[in-house]
Amino acid sequence: MVMRRRDFLKAVTAGVLLSGIDPFSFVSAGQLLPPSRRLSQPVLDNHIKDYLHKMENFDHPHPGDVILEQKQLPLLNACVSKLKRLQDMAGHGNFNILSFDDGLSIARRYSEVGEFTKKELEFLEWIFYSDSSIYGFWGEKPIDSITTSINKREVVNISDSGNYLYKGTPREIYETLRKYVGDQLYLTSGIRGVVKQFLLFLDKANNNRGNLSLASRSLAPPGYSYHGVADFDVGQRGYGALNFTGKFTTTEVFKKLEDLHFVTIRYPRNNLKGVRFEPWHIKVFPEA
Ligand SMILES: [Zn+2]
User: Fold this and answer.
1) What are the pLDDT digits (tens) for 94-130?
2) Residue 68: DSSP 8-state
3) pTM of the full predicted structure?
4) Distance from the CA of 48 to the center of ligand 1, in angstroms?
5) 3-state SS assignment for residue 226
6) CA gyration radius for the chain?
7) What does DSSP assign to residue 263?
């Protein structure tokens, strides 16, 4: 395993970057390292162990996790409820590729969803434009604007899956995988626009007392997901939700994928992005 010391120092001292960004702010669940503290080798080794332990146990809170302030939790909950109503209204398939602006206009038009309040919009923008490394997500941000939309002419609905893929390379890779692995391989998650990623990320945070670090260990924050630009997830047919667990590595589909040298996964074991091991997530652009 290659550990790049600089990245690691950045990761383990992330807590010091916390600051009150008006009108919202984060708090840390644990003690922070003072910025000036030099990490000796034994200290660094311990931090690496801590980091790996945290990624193995991604779904649990850990000391140093960055969480929303208590007073923001009702706002978080309100946004999640509204996004869920929006998903019901738009339909799950459409919701995957819905843009932020279209989402707002549906919410405004249908009282069953309800218009987003100014405070909710400010909160969503603050989440989108905050630097995710503050709470320990080190991935790149392929989508830099909250209003980025998906051109329907550039995507294709994959039958029986309720998911979309971009035409061109992503669809070609998917079809090649099906050819080599067989029909047992299917698309479990394809394109996810900004709104869909908002719902996934915030719902996870909402179910975990506003813990953004915990949420980001298994779900990229909106803007930071490669599902928005090309990547997709595959699973073994009939394996259901287990396709998104470590058990996926025991399936025939995964074993066959492993033998295909052109397949790369986005978040390998012991990655330095602050993300759990995701053997199901296919990286479409190797250099992206
Ligand atoms: Zn994925």
Assistant:
1) 999 999 999 999 999 999 999 999 999 999 999 999 9
2) E
3) 0.88
4) 25
5) helix
6) 19
7) -
